[in-house]
Amino acid sequence: MKLLKQWPLLSVAISASLLSGCFDSTSDKPVSQASTTEATQDRIKLAMLLPPRSGLTPLSDDAFKLSRWSTAETLVILDQAGNLAPALATKWEQISPTEWRFELRPNVQFHDHSPFNAKAVVNSLQVAAKATPKPRILDGMNLTIKADGEHAVIVTSSKPDPLLAQRLTSPQLSILSPNAYQANGVINPITAGTGPFVLTAVNGTSSATLNRFNDYWGEKAQASGIDVNFVPDGIARAAALRTDNADIVEAIPVSQAPLLDPSLVHEVPMPRTNTLYLNTRYGVMKDPAVRAAVREAINREQIVNNVYEKRADIAQGLLGPALPWAAKLRQPVEHTVAPADPKGITITLATFTDRTELPEVAVYLAQQLNKAGFTVKQDVREYSQIESDALAGKFDAFILSRATVLDSGDPVAYMYSDFSCKGSFNIAQLCQPEIDQALQVAGSLPAGLERQKAIMAAENLILASDAAIPMLHERVIQGESKRVVGAIRDPRERTLIDSHTYIKNVK
C-alpha cells in the first residue's frame, strides 16, 4: 500500500440574548434557557463564523461544515503530519499511473440506514466529478469511478495524478447516501452522512441541529448532540463565549481576544493567507507598473500590528509558517517592472464583512494607497453578496482571507484554482502560460522534496506577476469554554468536534 497525503451588526447585549435562545435548544426551535438546562447539559453549543452559502451541499465550501461537525466522511483523511489515513476506506493502492483502488470499510451504514457499499461510493464521486462547476479540488481533473465488486472502487484519472488519493480527503468529496441526491440536482445532507453525528435539521442560515448517531461504525460520540448557531458578527461570537452561551466559538476576532479569559482562547498557526488580489485583466491593474506601485505602497507590519494586534505573521510569500518547508525553499522574487507614479488613479478596493478584520484591513490599505498617490473607493459587503462580482473581475483590488492547503493538504490545488488560466477561483483574472506550466510540473510530481521545490518555483512566478500580494498569515483563534473537553484545534479547519469531544459539569 502506498501512502501519499469591526463591523458590529448588533449590540453585544442584544446578540447575547439572541444567542441564548438559539443555543439552548434540543429541538429544531429555540426555547428558553431555564426550561432546557438539564436537557442540554451534554450537548455542545457551537458558534460558527459563516452561514451556509449553498444549502450545505457537499460540492461547495459548505462541505467543511459537514466535516467539522463529524457528520459527513470521506474515503481517506489526512493525519496531523499530512499523511493519508483510513476513514471509509481501509486500504488503498495505486495500480497504474492513472488508477487507484480503494477497499471499503465493512459494517458502515448511512444515517438513513441505507447500506454503505461500492454503488453508493460510485454515485457520490460521480456526481462530484460531473458537477458544473466542479469542486475546486477537481479543477483540471477528469475522473471516472467504477465498482470493483461490492466492497471496493477504482478511481481513474484522465492523466497521471500522484496526489489523487489526497484529493479524495477533501470534504467536498464526502460520501453521502444515495437518497441525498435528488432529481432536481439538489443534494440534501440531512440524515445522509456516515459520521458519529447525524444532521437532523437546518434552519436556513441561522442554525443547525445534530444528534449522536448510535449506529456509528467507530467509537460512539460522547456528546449527545451539537447545537449550531451561525454568527457572522465577531463581537457576538465573543460575547457568546464570555456569557457561557457557546462552548466552542470559531474565529474569535483579534480585537475581542484580549477581552476574554486567556484560558478560553487558543491560537493555532494556520495555512491561511490574507492576500490582496489585483485585477490583471480589466481596468488600471492590467498595467504591471501600476500593480508594482500597489505592492510598494503596502505596509504589512502596520496591518499586522494595528489590525491583528500582532496575532499574525508578516507574509513573505503565499505559503506561511504552517508549511515550514516553504520558507526554506523560497527564492528571492525578481521584479522586472518599475512601479508607476499613480498620479491620482482611481481604484476600487473591495472585501467582505464576514471576517471581522478584513474591513479594517481595507481601511489601512486605503490609507496606504492614498498616501502613495492612488484615489481609493471602497466596496465592503457580506461575502454572499460580493463573491460573484469578485469572480467576474468587477474590482481593481480585492482583499481575501484564503486557505492555501484546505482541500488536499497540498497547495497546488489552491494555486491552480486561484492563478491558472482556467482556475475556478481566479479573482486576479490571471492567465500566464509560464505559471500554468509551472503548476503542471508541480502537479505531476509525487509528494516530497522535488514537488515542494516545484511548488515554490510556481509561487515565485505568481509573486513576480504582482497579481497577488500576500500581506499576512493568519492564526486561528478558537474559543473554548471551561465546560468543553476534546475540541479539535485543526490548522486545516476540517475537524472541530469528533466522538471524543464532550461537555463536563463545571460548578
From TrEMBL:
Entry GO terms, CC: ATP-binding cassette (ABC) transporter complex; outer membrane-bounded periplasmic space
An annotated GO BP: peptide transport
Keywords: Signal
Record field: transmembrane: none
Gene3D superfamilies (UniProt xref): Dipeptide-binding Protein, Domain 3 (3.10.105.10), Periplasmic binding protein-like II (3.40.190.10)
Limits of the Solute-binding protein family domain: 84-424
InterPro entries assigned: Peptide/Ni-bd, SBP_5, SBP_5_dom
Gene Ontology molecular function: any one: peptide transmembrane transporter activity
Segment forming the signal sequence: 1-20
Protein name: ABC transporter substrate-binding protein
Lineage, uppermost ranks: Bacteria, Pseudomonadati, Pseudomonadota, Gammaproteobacteria, Vibrionales
